[in-house]
User: What shape does this take?
Amino acid sequence: MTGTMENDGKKRGPGDENSPAASPSAIKLTDISKSFGPVRANDSVNMEIHAGTIHGIIGENGAGKSTLMSILYGFYEADRGTIEVDGKTVKITSSQAAISVGIGMVHQHFMLIDTFTVLENIILGAETSALLVAGLEEARVKLQALEDEYGLNVDLNVLTGDLPVGEQQRVEILKALYRDARILILDEPTGVLTPQETAQLFKILKALNREGVTIVLITHKLKEIMTITDNVSVMRAGQMVAHRKTANTSAEELAELMVGRKIINEIEKSTGQRGQPALKVEGLTVKSAGAVPLIDDLSFEVCAGEIVGIAGVSGNGQSELLEVLSGIRPFDTGKIFLNGRDVSPQHLCDPKEVRGLKIAHVPEDRHRLGMVTNFSAQESSILGYQDAAVYNSGPFLDLPTINRECRRLMEGFDVRPRLPEIRSANMSGGNQQKLILAREIDKGPEVLLVGQPTRGVDIGAIEFIHGQLIELRKQGCAVLMVSVELDEVMKLSDRILVMFDGRIVAEVAGNKADEKMLGLMMANAHSQLAQAETNA
Amino acid sequence: MEDTFMFAVLTLDATLRVSTPLIFCAMAGLFSERSGIIDISLEGKMLSAAFIAASVAAVTGSAWLALVAAICVASGLALLHGFACITHKGNHVVSGVAINILASGLTVVLGISWFQRGGQTPSLPSSARFMPIEFPFTDALNGTPLLGTIYKELLSGHNILVYLAFLVVPLTWWVVFQTRFGLRLRAVGENPTAVDTAGISVSGLRYRAVLICGLLTGFAGAYLAIAQNAGFVRDMTAGQGYIALAALIFGKWRPFSAFAACLLFGLLDAIAIRLQGVHLAGVGEVPVELIQALPYILTVILLAGFIGKAVAPKAIGQPYLKER
Amino acid sequence: MSQNSSTLPRWIDIGLIPILNVAMALLVSGLIILLIGESPLEAVQIMIQGALGYDEGIGYTLYYTTNFVFTGLAVAVAFHAGLFNIGGEGQAYIGGLGVGLFLLLADDSLSPILLLPVGIIAAGLFGAAWAAIPAYLQAYRGSHIVITTIMFNFIASALMVYLMVNVLIKPGQMSPESRVFLDTAHLPFAHEIFAWMGIKIARSPLNISIIWAAICCIGLWLFVWRTRWGYAIRSVGFNEKAAVYAGITPAKTIMLAMFISGALAGFVGVNEIMGVHHKLLLNYTAGYGFTGIAVSLMGRNHPFGIILASLLFGVLYQGGAELAFEVPTITRELVVVIQGLVILFSGALAYMSTPWIEWAYGALSRRQSSAGQGEG
Assistant: This one.
């Protein structure tokens, strides 16, 4: 986001693939930029995808991959830049336009209508006649041919909502092929799939590729890039930082490119004082509505005076873990202990009880959970503690006290402007976060759950927040921190747990971790490497 | 026996007549709500259409011209609803309430200004109305015991709009489930993003849906003012738009089920009128009000999930915004 | 219900835009009067004169205002919880039934001093109970409260007709009305109170219910913005997920908000049944419940705004009656038209003008800042 990051893409590295032997380009993007308000989601992105290849785009969450593909598919319009398809400059202003130049997309969240049959879903928007029956029959014939050709077996007559996700995804692929897509973009296609389904998907993708379909695979999983792609482009913070031939690169190099090297100020992190286990989780399992485990038999502990960082690409169960531990989300099986006492019953979806146990929670998403943006700062400063005796006198909220306390929190945590009356929405992200942190820390918690402590926060505030977490640890609080910022995790944590697919796949001592290793672990491509490091 | 049979036939005959506006409105609401636009303004559109139909019929003497005017006005209000809900992403319910209240006021204000009859329009001659159509051979068949009576009293002798209403139901089913437009309509009410990514305009589809809704409420209003009755009386819809909405929900947003609900609610109404003040053996006087309230009570019970489950189109009432 | 434009300063957001919306509604109303062939300016003059020009008119205006305050507050408190209560009409109706039944049973046995407070409680409880059923169905069974409250309006109406015609009707009487309550159960009229103080004013239906309406305004303001329960209600209305995070149970909060909403609507029954008619009868709610929607939207769900909006609608109702009397081509229903237009412009199209104002404000502040730089 700083814009000063070095841009590897402009240098010619040894792995660069601009060899004359390459096939003609299917897609060429030049200087694509897109901003959402102050956020630059894509910053002068250049990329070439060769016809008939499988091209991977890898990057962390929020690196701008999905935005780029949405631009290519006409869902957003780029602020700047050109798109060439098959060597011709095209303007893609709508999904219709993208479809007409042969681009098909399988979205991360499927664009399917649960109450429609598979066949109806596939032909929606590409019906061949005004009457459904004729169109459906025509489509059935064409789809049968496609299914046979690529081995994509889906029953066309069942309701889409009744299908498992793997098959729903096949419906999405069929949808694109039915529209004669020759370039197929898949956005994080394996995120919702079981390993078996993933294997199946890759088989299909290879078959498609053999038939000449160009495939663009967006993912954050290195293993997938290494297994299936021909070429790979790496995005970081809205920029395209490198292009490589997959055969000429390694998972280690990609992990490093993806995470980047950020300069972090070392922080005085005195060791010792680690006390008894404060928070202990045993065999915790949380299942989604579709019975897919979001958290899978998780066990770990956090001691008093210790910061445990959870690293991982988001969407691997970290959010759910925080929600369960703070009592927002119910869990299926497992036990939660606080200072050796079983507090599982209190955790069955009752945030109030959990707060009473002196477990504080700074949620990942300020706007969605942590505050009510329409409230004044002082109202947000009591969220979760609105029933506390300090803030109430008789039936009424004690506004003078709330105001005074809010001002005190603001001063203690340097929240600006120091106006308890300001609307929460009108505060900057950093100040919002400091206020929430102040609110939670001020209650003297024994356990602090904190998610993405510095997301969208300016540099000054980051330093301050980090300092506060260290201070809290010094006072003997057990801190469990979830963050996608690796430097943050490494800088603060005494121990780092890496989560992948709802499980803890690795544990590293904070002082022994480095980005490359963590990047590999987060992509679950570490195996022996991690083993070696932890044993050392 | 003969009496009971005659009573039944006449009650059913009345049912057809009372159900007709409900059917038009329920089908109208079906198009709108299937596209994701909540429409509680069926009542207001029908009332406005009734008023304009009666006014135009009174001035021009042409029932057909009156029908066209009714359709235009109802469609205009439907577009207003669309403008608020689709273009300006306003609250669907608020917009619907506004249109209902506007209609109930404006029809009286304009009625008094135009005709000076306390909100009524002049009584219409039969030439300016849709009159009952007698089927051929009614007299010839009159001798046939059961069928003759059914043919004469129940099937024959309705105006063209009644027959049209019964045609609109299969037509609605056909459009919604058998055409490309219907597929897209259902899709946009369930998942507008999917429709957008399929390259179809969400707003375009929804505007077309509310227009069809306006058209059909126009028929309903015209029926009330220039077919069933001979002129407009203030607030003559008397909640039938809401009953139609209840029927639509009761029929789980499906054409034939909603149609059946309309007939059921119409039947309850017809029975209530006939049982007014009647003492039944063993029951005593039937509380007519209970029968009249039954459509609402049944709908609430259905909505509460006690008899089956009415699942609304998934995206209903939500303005379509691209993510971010 | 919590759509908010954040880039504009507060005075534009809660001052200029609402006024602009009402102005647009009134402008269109003026056009309708022109269409009828009358002069809008003259109409405004007659209305203001009729509503505020003499003591009887003022009395009527404030009597209407009382009802609108109750129904407006009822809609507003539900709005704060993110709920749309269209059932004010039915809740007001049943609230009246509550106070009426109580007085029919107890007007001769209970001390007159107790009749007023218990009457208020009866009206509130009945109204609240009528709102509690749709609330329960929304909170625990997921049925949409808009539809259920509409249905409950009709059910209330049918129930009242049944009770009045069959049960509560005074024997030997044609029209469906109950017996008149004892004199001790009548709320004092304003003209009576003034007469005790030796001031003579004209008779009007205005009674001491207006004081209860004022108390409700203050009470609701305190409740919504000064208690933890109001805090919970607003949390759920603005951001249900954050409310859950804060340990607030949305279902319970919905019940609470609707219970209060129904009670407030029920208080219309105190004004109408105990204050004006002194007997149970049919159709005394006369659309006040629906006007509450316009009042609440116009008053931005705030008691202060609701008082202003209620006064405006009081003037419109009373002035409209006067206007209909003076100008034969205009009827009272003109007020209903204005009401519909207010709901349209202040509610459904509330943010129609926002892009324009944002643009104008942006252009203006840019010009100002560039001018400031020029000087510096």
Notes: Chain A touches chain C through 33 residues (CB under 8 Å). Chain A has three domains: 4-102+182-259, 112-181, 277-367+439-535.
